[in-house]
């Protein structure tokens, strides 16, 4: 029944609808009285009668529906309709202000708000309300909440109840019209049912009966292409891969064709007990371990998970990093360089060199036998008399003490008034003389120990000196001791210009050499006791001299600078060899009694053994000590050498030198001797062997001298 | 002399390597394509020995490939396919841009595809090679088969992975080649021995994945693409080695059993095929009907140079293996619905047991809970109501531990609600000096045939006795302390009396052994001093490793001891509380 209704509304001609539209017109005439604005609206409608039809059509369905439901009394409809018109024309209602649809803020700073139809200014209503007024108004005016300001006129407008209601409805998102039903059943414009009659009565075209020529041409082209094999039938799609016996003809001998260096991917590490969901309790991490685990870098962790214990399988959650781990494995497989690592699978015992047992290399000092106490400060230097009966020690407390070796008795104390840097007993057994370095002078002291004839003879030799007729220019001064000094044992004083470092005797006992702490060519001086004269062997300084030594047999002279040991031939007066010590700072040096081997101790805790026949580089570098070496010593008869270090130990080594030139020296450490206490980070300061027995003396920073036998 | 000056970096190692970018340019591939190619062909970078030389004097961090590898890639037909695909994508984009839907449809139909068969053959010339590399393939397939069917990767891939994984599981059941299983916190590890190759894989626990964002799924998908191809061919070969149909067919008899009652089917046979297969409860059909005399005696081929003892040992091993394979033979299991069905069904079937579950849980249930012939029911809840007489109610760990121990363990420790004994990893073989947990020691003793059950009882008894003893001891201690004081007094008196006397000196016994030991250790120390620098470094490194190992073992032992004493004290306290 709706279909024909709509069609008719299009036509707008039938009489049956007349009543409806007449009603509309009635209402329109009614509304003319209500307001001037509406009147104008109506006028507009009349001016454009063509347009006027449109709203009518719009309104039609609802009206028709109302009609369909029940024909309502005309009066009520007549009442409702003018309301509708009011709404429609509301936006063009007030045209007293002709500025048009512009933002009203443009007139903010002006006294007027626009222009009326005559072009005169419309002034803003006088507003001088301050906050207080506003507040009072708010309090007093019961209609304050429904008062709004009209922007166009600037006047306050009180909203009517209907308007307020409208605002509420709009705020709620409802339609403005109370009577509008948004949920009306939809009426299709075209019905979904197939109608038996066509909409138009036009006969079909001719072309819809005749086969198309263009299509024929296309088909013939396709047929031709198929015949010629240009178009192939579509390949059937293969969704599932097919498998077959890929390794049917496998060649067991074939290697990877690519390259021989292919490294197959290593397998993943298999899980240990700690990965179990219910591990033994010892594998769980304690609180501290857990904390440490969390603070570690993820790459550094030994386990990439925290071991956990669950009471039953039901309680085990999903592992959150499962996909990560698979992904990391993938990355490893295609991004990691692979390398075949040769894992050294050696028994550590095999690495230890097979050395002759120390027991077979006896004798050597093994135990501490005696302690010589008496010095109050560190004992810097030691010297043993050639007979082996006496021991002299010089200390920082400014004294030199003479001890009897076998009893550890202090026979004599000689105050020298300064730090004793070096002390050397004359190696000539017929002379009883000790050279002592004190500050800037060397004291030649007769200790008056032992055989009375012997030391008497020494004094006689010294006194028999006859000064030469013509004074020679000397770098030092030889001074005979005063009587007071003479009574203490001092016989001669050799005064240098600078502080002294070391004194050492020539094997014959007539010459001795001194080292001055200076960086000039005057560092090394050689003195002759019998003639009381000194000479400077070097014209040029080659660096800071650490120590000097005379060759025990031949006329060679060894000078150790920081890094090198230079060997000079005293007869030819030339440099014969320069030994490279391979260390930073040589501290001490000793020469094998046969004279072909030299050892050098250095402050970087190395001991270099030079075989002079082999090369100028060390035959062996021994890193036995943990701290700087202070002194090294050879034994006169036994194949032993010792080194004392700041770590408080003396290491005695067996150093066999063979007469056969083809056989290299055999070096075996045989004993680590401990005993000295560390004071001021210093341990053993001097080491010296007994001339005849396999005993070793050591002096330490703790103010003691110790004898190991 | 003279001649042309040789240019640098034109010979030697600099010419053997190529940087990644250069390789990419040489192959005319984009970086993702190059990555795909490397993954598929198994090409990995190389670390040159002298990086600076290879890098032409620069020390910038670069990835190097062997030039030979890249030249080898040049001949790969897949590279052309990649290019074709690139062109295809370009055409498709153009078609979409022009809104030519027909063209797009046509292009899509002719999407270029490629096969990886030849690459599999090339990378694994022999079947054993392929088996050796199967670990990652299996783990990846099992992971992908658990992915949801949405996003992340193609549904077809997931389905294929699931199919291949289920096929492999069925093969392992049919060949009874499972050896070890392990419940870790990451997932479940399985180890099977196929043709003498140990194959280990891990499956995640059945939970939905929380897909991480920092994982490149394209890389994983490329790997999976290769792995599915590999696994398919391996499965084919494995099935044929057992005379089984491939694709697998369920045994006719079993299929009839599996078929639900008429009218209750929820899917067509073809649709529920994979589900039935993944139920793992039915045996597979063979190409040739199996003869009854399956266990033919192995012919003995005496190997030259093998002594009788070795032969015996080998024989024994063989027997033990056979016994292990038939671990659950004759046992009937029932899985409660709260236990993970697939792993347990798989394991039980691998060792010859029969297994069933609730019908509503999964297809393929063969018998009901009420079946009186059930010997073991696997439950994972604190207590079981309505226990049926004649069967053991056990926690799932029993199955896993029994498989690893190669014998059916005593059931008492695994009853529901009982505190379980620790679950140990079967992959650890302790060497000398390693820490061995006491449970493992007990297990080893059990495997050797000793009965540790009595011991434990004895221990308990001892413990009780100890408890009693403790009290006595306390009393004794008091007595002793008094006694000691008396003794002391006596001694003092004696000393006083003795002080004036001259007594015969006692011979101080020197511990000769200790002396010798000391001497030896000193000799060793001296010898170490004489080592060469390089050897000393090596020696120190080895010794450091050894010491760390010992330290760790000691730490574990100490932890265990502390834990045990704590437990004991707690026990005592509860006992006392109970007594009071």
Automatic annotation (TrEMBL), chain A:
Biased composition (Acidic residues): 1-18, 37-47, 83-94
GO terms for MF: ribonucleoprotein complex binding
PROSITE patterns named in the record: WD_REPEATS_1 (PS00678), WD_REPEATS_2 (PS50082), WD_REPEATS_REGION (PS50294)
Keyword Cell membrane: no
GO terms for cellular component: nucleoplasm; PeBoW complex; preribosome, large subunit precursor
Domain BOP1 N-terminal stretches: 107-365
Domain of life: Eukaryota
Biological-process GO terms, alphabetical: maturation of 5.8S rRNA from tricistronic rRNA transcript (SSU-rRNA, 5.8S rRNA, LSU-rRNA); maturation of LSU-rRNA from tricistronic rRNA transcript (SSU-rRNA, 5.8S rRNA, LSU-rRNA)
Chain positions covered by the region annotation Disordered: 1-94
Chief site of localization: nucleus
InterPro entries named in the record: BOP1/Erb1, BOP1_N_dom, WD40/YVTN_repeat-like_dom_sf, WD40_repeat_CS, WD40_repeat_dom_sf, WD40_rpt
Annotated compartments: Nucleus, Nucleolus; Nucleus, Nucleoplasm
WD repeats: 372-413, 622-652
Keywords: Nucleus, Repeat, Ribosome biogenesis, rRNA processing, WD repeat
Pfam families xref list: BOP1NT, WD40
Role of this protein: Component of the PeBoW complex, which is required for maturation of 28S and 5.8S ribosomal RNAs and formation of the 60S ribosome.
Family statement drawn from the similarity comment of this UniProt entry: Belongs to the WD repeat BOP1/ERB1 family.
Subunit structure and binding partners: Component of the PeBoW complex, composed of BOP1, PES1 and WDR12. Within the PeBoW complex BOP1 interacts directly with PES1 and WDR12. The PeBoW complex also associates with the 66S pre-ribosome.
Protein name (Swiss-Prot/TrEMBL): Ribosome biogenesis protein BOP1
Species: Chrysolophus pictus
Protein's gene: BOP1
TrEMBL record, chain B:
InterPro entries, A to Z: BRCT_dom, BRCT_dom_sf, PES
Compartments it resides in: Nucleus, Nucleolus; Nucleus, Nucleoplasm
Residue stretches of biased makeup (Acidic residues): 452-484
UniProt entry keywords in alphabetical sequence: Nucleus, Ribosome biogenesis, rRNA processing
GO biological process: maturation of 5.8S rRNA from tricistronic rRNA transcript (SSU-rRNA, 5.8S rRNA, LSU-rRNA); maturation of LSU-rRNA from tricistronic rRNA transcript (SSU-rRNA, 5.8S rRNA, LSU-rRNA)
GO cellular component, one term: preribosome, large subunit precursor
Residue span(s) of domain BRCT: 323-416
A Pfam family recorded for this sequence: Pescadillo_N
Composition-biased stretches (Basic and acidic residues): 485-496, 507-522, 563-572
Molecular function via GO: ribonucleoprotein complex binding; RNA binding
Region described as Disordered: spans on this chain: 447-522, 555-580
Cell membrane listed as a keyword: no
Highest taxon in the source lineage: Eukaryota
General function of this protein: Component of the PeBoW complex, which is required for maturation of 28S and 5.8S ribosomal RNAs and formation of the 60S ribosome.
Binding partners and assembly: Component of the PeBoW complex, composed of BOP1, PES1 and WDR12. The complex is held together by BOP1, which interacts with PES1 via its N-terminal domain and with WDR12 via a high-affinity interaction between the seven-bladed beta-propeller domains of the 2 proteins. The PeBoW complex associates with the 66S pre-ribosome. The PeBoW complex also associates with DDX27, PES1 interacts directly with DDX27. Interacts with IRS1 and UBTF. May interact with MAP1B.
Stated family: Belongs to the pescadillo family.
Protein name according to UniProt: Pescadillo homolog
């Amino acid at each position: 029944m709706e279909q024909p209704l709509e069609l008719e509304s299009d036509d707008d001609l039938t009489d049956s609808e007349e009543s409806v539209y007449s009603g509309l017109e009635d209402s329109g005439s009614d509304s003319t009285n209500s307001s001037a604005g509406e009147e104008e609206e109506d006028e507009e409608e009349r001016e454009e009668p063509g347009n006027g039809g449109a709203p009518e059509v719009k309104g039609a369905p609802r009206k028709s529906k109302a009609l369909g439901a029940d024909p309502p009394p005309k009066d009520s409809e007549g009442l409702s309709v003018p309301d509708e018109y009011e709404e429609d024309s509301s936006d063009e209602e007030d045209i007293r202000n002709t500025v048009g649809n512009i933002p009203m803020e443009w007139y903010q700073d002006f006294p007027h708000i626009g222009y009326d139809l005559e072009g005169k200014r419309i002034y803003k209503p006088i507003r001088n309300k301050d906050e207080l007024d506003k507040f009072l108004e708010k309090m007093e005016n019961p209609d304050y909440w429904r008062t709004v300001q009209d922007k166009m006129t600037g006047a306050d407008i009180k909203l009517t109840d209907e308007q307020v209601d409208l605002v509420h409805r709009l705020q709620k998102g409802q339609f403005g019209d109370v009577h509008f039903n948004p949920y009306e059943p939809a009426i299709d414009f075209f019905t979904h049912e197939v109608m038996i009659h066509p909409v138009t009565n036009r006969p079909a075209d001719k072309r819809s009966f005749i086969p198309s020529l263009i299509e024929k041409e296309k088909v013939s082209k396709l047929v031709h292409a198929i015949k010629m094999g240009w178009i192939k039938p579509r390949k059937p799609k293969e969704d599932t891969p097919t498998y077959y016996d890929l390794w049917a003809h496998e060649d067991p001998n074939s290697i990877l064709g690519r390259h021989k260096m292919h490294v197959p991917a290593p397998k993943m590490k298999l899980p240990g007990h700690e990965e179990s969901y219910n591990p033994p309790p010892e594998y769980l991490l304690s609180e501290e371990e857990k904390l440490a685990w969390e603070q570690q870098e993820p790459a550094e962790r030994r386990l990439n998970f925290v071991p956990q214990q669950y009471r039953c399988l039901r309680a085990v959650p999903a592992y959150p990093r499962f996909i990560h781990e698979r992904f990391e494995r993938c990355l490893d497989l295609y991004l990691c360089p692979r390398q075949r690592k040769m894992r050294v699978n050696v028994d550590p015992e095999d690495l230890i060199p097979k050395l002759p047992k120390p027991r077979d290399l006896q004798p050597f000092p093994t135990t501490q036998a005696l302690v010589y106490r008496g010095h109050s400060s560190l004992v810097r230097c030691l010297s043993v008399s050639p007979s082996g009966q006496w021991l002299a020690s010089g200390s920082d407390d400014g004294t030199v003490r003479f001890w009897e070796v076998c009893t550890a008795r202090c026979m004599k104390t000689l105050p020298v008034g300064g730090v004793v840097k070096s002390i050397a007993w004359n190696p000539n057994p017929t002379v009883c003389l000790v050279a002592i370095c004190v500050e800037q002078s060397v004291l030649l002291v007769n200790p008056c120990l032992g055989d009375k004839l012997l030391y008497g003879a020494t004094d006689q030799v010294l006194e028999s000196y006859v000064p030469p007729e013509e004074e020679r220019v000397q770098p030092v001064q030889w001074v005979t001791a005063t009587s007071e000094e003479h009574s203490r044992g001092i016989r001669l004083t050799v005064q240098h210009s600078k502080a002294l470092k070391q004194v050492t005797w020539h094997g014959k006992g007539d010459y001795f050499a001194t080292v001055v702490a200076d960086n000039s060519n005057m560092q090394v001086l050689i003195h002759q006791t019998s003639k009381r004269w000194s000479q400077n062997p070097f014209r040029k300084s080659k660096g800071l001299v650490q120590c000097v030594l005379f060759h025990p047999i031949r006329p060679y002279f060894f000078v150790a600078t920081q890094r090198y040991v230079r060997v000079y031939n005293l007869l030819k007066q030339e440099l014969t060899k320069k030994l490279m010590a391979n260390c930073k700072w040589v501290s001490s040096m000793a020469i094998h009694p046969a004279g072909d081997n030299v050892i050098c101790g250095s402050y970087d805790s190395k001991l270099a053994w030079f075989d002079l026949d082999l090369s100028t580089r060390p035959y062996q570098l021994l890193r036995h000590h943990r701290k700087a070496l202070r002194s090294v010593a050879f034994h006169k008869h036994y194949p032993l050498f010792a080194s004392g270090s700041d770590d408080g130990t003396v290491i005695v080594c067996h150093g066999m030198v063979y007469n056969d030139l083809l056989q290299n020296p055999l070096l075996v450490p045989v004993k680590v001797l401990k005993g000295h206490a560390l004071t001021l980070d210093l341990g053993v300061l001097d080491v010296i062997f007994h001339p005849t027995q396999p005993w070793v003396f050591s002096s330490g920073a703790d103010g003691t001298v110790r004898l190991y036998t | 002399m003279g001649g042309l000056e040789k240019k640098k970096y034109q010979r030697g190692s600099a010419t053997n390597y190529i940087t990644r970018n250069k390789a990419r340019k040489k192959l005319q591939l984009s970086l993702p394509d190059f990555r795909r190619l490397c993954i598929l062909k198994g090409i990995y970078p190389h670390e040159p020995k002298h990086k600076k030389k290879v890098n032409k004097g620069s020390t910038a961090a670069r990835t190097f490939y062997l030039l030979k590898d890249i030249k080898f890639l040049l001949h790969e037909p897949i590279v052309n396919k990649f290019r074709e695909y690139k062109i295809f994508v370009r055409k498709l984009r153009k078609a979409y841009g022009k809104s030519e839907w027909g063209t797009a449809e046509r292009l899509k139909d002719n999407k270029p595809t490629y096969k990886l068969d030849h690459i599999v053959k090339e990378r694994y010339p022999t079947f054993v090679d392929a088996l050796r590399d199967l670990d990652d393939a299996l783990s990846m397939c099992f992971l992908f088969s658990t992915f949801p069917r949405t996003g992340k990767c193609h549904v077809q891939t997931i389905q294929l992975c699931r199919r291949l994984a289920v096929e492999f599981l069925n093969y392992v059941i049919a060949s009874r080649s499972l050896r070890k299983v392990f419940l870790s916190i990451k997932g479940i590890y399985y180890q099977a021995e196929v043709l003498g190759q140990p194959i280990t894989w891990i499956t995640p626990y059945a939970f939905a994945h929380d897909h991480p964002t920092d994982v490149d799924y394209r890389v994983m998908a490329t790997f999976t693409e290769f792995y599915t191809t590999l696994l398919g061919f391996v499965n084919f070969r494995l099935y044929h080695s057992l005379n089984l149909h491939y694709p697998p067919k369920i045994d006719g008899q079993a299929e009839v059993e599996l078929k639900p009652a008429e009218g209750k089917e929820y899917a067509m046979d073809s649709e529920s095929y994979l589900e039935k297969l993944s139920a793992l409860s039915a045996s597979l059909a063979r190409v040739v009907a199996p003869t009854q005399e399956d266990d033919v005696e192995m012919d003995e081929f005496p190997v030259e140079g093998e002594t009788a003892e070795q032969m015996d040992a080998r024989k024994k091993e063989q027997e033990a293996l056979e016994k292990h394979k038939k671990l659950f033979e004759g046992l009937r299991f029932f899985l409660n619905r709260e236990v993970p069905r697939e792993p347990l069904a798989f394991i039980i079937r691998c060792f010859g047991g029969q297994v069933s579950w609730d019908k509503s849980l999964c297809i393929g249930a063969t018998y009901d809970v009420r079946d009186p012939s059930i010997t073991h029911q696997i439950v994972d809840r604190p207590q079981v109501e309505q226990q049926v007489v004649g069967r053991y109610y056990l926690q799932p760990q029993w199955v896993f531990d029994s498989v690893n121990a190669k014998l059916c363990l005593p059931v008492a420790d695994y009853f529901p609600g009982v505190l379980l004994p620790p679950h140990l990893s079967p992959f650890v073989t302790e060497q000398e000096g390693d820490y061995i947990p006491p449970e493992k020691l007990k297990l080893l003793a059990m495997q050797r045939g000793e009965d540790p059950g009595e011991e434990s009882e004895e221990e308990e008894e001892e413990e009780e006795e100890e408890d009693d003893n403790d009290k006595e001891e306390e009393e004794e201690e008091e007595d002793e302390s008094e006694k000691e004081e008396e003794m002391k007094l006596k001694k003092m008196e004696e000393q006083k009396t003795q002080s004036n006397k001259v007594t015969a000196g006692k011979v101080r016994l020197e511990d000769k052994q200790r002396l010798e030991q000391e001497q030896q250790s000193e000799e060793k120390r001296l010898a170490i001093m004489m080592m060469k620098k390089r050897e000393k470094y090596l020696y120190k490194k080895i010794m450091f490793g050894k010491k760390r190992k010992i330290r760790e073992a000691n730490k574990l032992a100490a932890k265990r001891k502390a834990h045990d004493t704590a437990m004991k004290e707690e026990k005592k306290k509860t006992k006392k509380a109970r007594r009071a």
